[in-house]
Design goal:
The complex is a heterodimer of chains A (496) and B (150).
Chain A lengths: L6 H4 L2 H19 L5 H12 L4 H26 L10 H10 L3 H33 L5 H17 L5 H15 L2 E3 L4 E3 L14 H19 L20 H6 L1 H16 L5 H15 L11 H25 L5 H12 L6 H6 L1 H32 L4 H18 L4 H20 L3 H25 L3 H5 L2 H29 L1
Helix pairs in contact in A: 2-3, 2-4, 2-16, 3-4, 3-9, 3-14, 3-17, 4-5, 4-6, 4-13, 4-14, 4-16, 5-6, 5-13, 6-11, 6-13, 6-16, 7-8, 7-19, 7-21, 8-19, 9-17, 9-18, 11-12, 11-13, 12-13, 13-14, 14-19, 17-18
Chain B lengths: L3 H21 L8 H22 L13 H21 L1 H15 L5 H22 L8 H8 L3
Helix pairs in contact in B: 1-2, 3-4, 4-5
The chains are: A mainly alpha (496), B mainly alpha (150).
């Protein structure tokens, strides 16, 4: 049973203050093209070290939520998606801005994002509680197989080449082996470096891959400013009546449901959800010709789907430890730095943290219209900040993030190294998210794998020949073999 | 033909070799199982990468590394900043780094070049040092100067 009194833990000045800071910062970061929720969470992770777990997680949740929405602002107002998830919003959001209806589109987007986010986070609250209970019937072998399912899905989803996804995943797993092996108390792959005895710390790779690497990419692109276009949001037609919003409730709800479902499936993110919801809404619409030319239903469905993904992606994260997307993987790091580990035990031993966090996630959605609509037009001006100012600031904050966790300069050098790796891999199309997910999930997978070997006691058939392990093994096999089969089929067809 | 895939494969072979050498030195067999699987996987991936590139099946897979020199310079400036911050102190080096990085990235407004580094450093100091009590490198050179009463 959910104890609703935990909601009161969120309504403290400290938690609310950090939620507001997280929301405002998240909207700004999300609105800046190229900087998404991954960077937002990565930059805020070190700050949350010094906060109580509830305030820290509520802050991260607000950053995640508002970053997702922030991307919509620049997509609508300046025709430049802030995050990859908002790409489809350009199709209908910007045409509305060109007609002087930018603020109207922004209001619709903010309300839809709130509806999508609320549905997603309510499903997160109830779904996670239910799923966490279901995990009690799973043994270590089942959890190991589920972890493999998560990794297999992500590998297959790397655009272009699954081989690169697999390589990045294996390297991530390899990095997870570094440090003291808890079971045998033997150090592995440390090369005598004292700083690595506890393993590679979480933050340097995260900040390096997502923040420093991104800054190198922007520097290489020689882009002076993110945008230079002016926006007119002062048109009197920008007011949105309540009944006009009620008319859009259908696209909002459908978008949210698609977003939640897509978010639950590991490896999928807002881009998939927004494209699916957009195409569905276009099919269902009586005026499909409006889509692509400023359809409000299009704006509503996409915005709702993007924010629905967040709640969905956190369901497998806090119950099974499988992040639904790369931002959720960073969120897992956020849980871990506060000593919280996903699963049923999280809901039993840390109920005083996890339930307030889930309630905070619901509350964070309500900040979207406040900061999104209120600051939207003003925020669009922020995207005109010179990259020559933005890049050094983010680099300094990355230094702080890398250093603050353990107070070791070694971690900052490590972060820089990962920045270079992130830059090269982005250019070469390697899955950075694959690497990070494997790094985060690797130690859990190894522990569960070993534990299951011990529990098997030589009785391999007795462990595998059960319904759940069999299903999970079949899913894993299908995920690994399907891309190979489809590649062979394509080659045979091309040969004909 | 671009050599990046070959370089990457070489790196993967090197990592695999080092891992195998390290695995060989491990006492407990339990600690070896997954690392061996991962190492074998890396060797297979590296080999497949070379084979695919040689067969030109990914000939359209062209990587654009233009502008990397500029990114490398920023990387070197940042590396120097990290190195010097340990010796001269974080709060001394941060405004200098920001000034240098902004200048390199094309910022020419004098007010911006001075105000942004100073304000950022002050904000960082107030937020992290005062509010969160997070200490950053103070710098050993400052201690040496104090030692000599300079």
């Amino acid at each position: 049973m959910i104890d609703y009194s935990y909601f009161l833990s969120v309504l403290t000045p400290e938690v609310l203050l950090w939620m507001v800071i997280g929301s405002v910062s998240g909207v700004i970061i999300g609105a800046l093209p190229g900087l998404g929720p991954e960077l937002g969470i990565a930059l805020f992770l070190p700050i949350t070290f010094n906060l109580t777990p509830v305030a820290g997680l509520a802050c991260l949740s607000s950053v995640f939520t508002s970053c997702q929405f922030g991307g919509n602002i620049s997509a609508i107002l300046i025709n430049t998606p802030g995050t990859s998830d908002s790409i489809f919003l350009v199709l209908d959001g910007y045409p509305l801005t060109k007609r002087g209806l930018g603020k109207r589109a922004l209001i619709i987007s903010a309300v839809s994002a709130t509806v999508g986010g609320l549905i997603g986070s309510v499903i997160l609250l109830y779904g996670a509680t239910f799923l966490a209970r279901a995990t009690t019937v799973m043994g270590p072998f089942e959890i190991f197989l589920i972890t493999l399912v998560g990794l297999s899905i992500i590998v297959t989803l790397v655009q272009g080449s699954p081989l690169k996804g697999l390589t990045a995943t294996l390297l991530g797993l390899a990095m997870g082996f570094i440090g003291l092996d808890g079971a045998t108390m033997q150090t592995r792959f440390t090369f005598g470096i004292m700083e690595l005895f506890d393993g590679v710390p979480l933050l340097p790779p995260i900040l390096g891959l997502f923040a420093v690497g991104q800054m190198f990419l922007i520097t290489a692109s020689r882009q002076e400013k993110i945008t230079a276009k002016d926006v007119d949001t002062a048109s009197p037609r920008n007011k949105v009546k309540l009944r006009e919003l009620v008319k859009l409730i259908g696209p909002m709800i459908r978008g949210a449901i698609i977003g939640v479902i897509i978010g639950i499936i590991p490896g999928n993110g807002g881009t998939t959800a927004s494209s699916l919801s957009y195409s569905l809404e276009r099919r269902l619409s009586k005026h499909p010709e409006e889509f692509g030319d400023g359809s409000e239903a299009g704006v509503a469905s996409i915005s709702s789907a993007i924010n629905g993904v967040m709640g969905g992606s956190l369901v497998p994260l806090i119950t099974l430890g499988i992040p639904g997307c790369s931002a959720a993987a960073l969120f897992l790091s956020g849980l871990m730095v506060h000593g919280l580990y996903p699963g049923q035990s999280l809901f039993i031993n840390s109920a005083d943290v996890v339930y307030p966090f889930l309630f905070a996630t619901i509350l964070a959605q309500l900040f979207i219209p406040i900061f999104g609509i209120g600051c939207g037009a003003w925020l669009s001006k922020l995207t005109k900040v010179d990259n020559s100012i933005l890049i050094p600031i983010i680099m300094v904050f990355s230094y702080i993030g890398g250093y603050a966790a353990r107070g070791q300069i070694f971690d900052v050098y490590l972060m820089l190294l990962f920045g270079v790796i992130g830059y090269c891999w982005d250019k070469m199309g390697y899955g950075i998210a694959c690497f990070l997910l494997a790094f985060v999930l690797g130690p859990t997978a190894e522990t569960k794998f070993r534990l299951s070997l011990m529990l098997m006691g030589g009785n391999l058939a007795g462990t595998i020949l059960k319904p759940l392990p069999m299903i999970l093994i079949l899913i894993n096999l299908a995920l690994i073999l399907l891309p190979v089969i489809s590649a062979i089929t394509r080659r045979v067809k091309a040969g004909k | 033909m671009q050599i990046y895939d070959f370089v990457m494969s070489g790196i993967l072979y090197a990592i695999s070799g080092v891992m195998l050498w390290q695995i060989h030195g491990l006492e407990h067999n339990e600690s070896k199982i997954l690392p061996i699987i991962v190492t074998v996987g890396l060797i297979i991936c590296a080999t497949l990468m070379i084979v695919r590139r040689l067969r030109k099946r990914d000939s359209d897979d062209v990587y654009d590394f233009s502008g990397s020199g500029r990114a490398a310079v920023l990387g070197m400036i940042t590396l120097a900043y990290v190195f010097l911050s340990e010796r001269f102190g974080f709060y001394v080096c941060t405004p200098i780094y920001m000034f240098a990085a902004m200048l390199f990235l094309g910022q020419r407004n004098k007010k911006v070049l001075v105000l942004v580094p100073v304000l950022t450093t002050v904000c960082v100091y107030l937020m992290f040092q005062i509010f969160f009590s997070v200490s950053f490198p103070r710098g050993s050179v400052i201690d040496i100067l104090k030692y000599f009463n300079l």
